[in-house]
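Whiteboard transcription, Tuesday session. T.W. wrote the structure tokens on the left side:
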């Protein structure tokens, strides 16, 4: 169904925060571009949130919330709908 998942970047946005921010993209079966990102705590993961944004939104808008969750041990995986965000 999907082709060529690739990791766009791995970054530690703020060196004071114990988290890892990763960005991914891939091409769907009909050549649509899809984007996702994850925020993972550096320590033990207590829970995982699969984030789905609303219409006219994009996942990067909630970056500060995702960092807050990661700092509390909660990993977040978020993706952008087609024609939203990246």
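and on the right, the sequence the group agreed on:
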């Amino acid at each position: 169904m999907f082709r060529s998942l690739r990791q766009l970047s791995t970054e530690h946005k703020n060196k004071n925060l114990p988290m890892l921010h990763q960005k991914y993209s891939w091409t769907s079966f009909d050549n649509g571009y899809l984007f996702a990102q994850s925020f993972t705590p550096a320590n033990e993961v207590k829970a995982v949130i699969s984030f789905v944004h609303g219409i006219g939104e994009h996942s990067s808008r909630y970056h500060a919330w995702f960092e807050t969750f990661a700092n509390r041990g909660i990993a977040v995986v978020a993706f952008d709908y087609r024609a939203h965000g990246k």
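Someone added at the bottom: The chain has one domain: 2-80.
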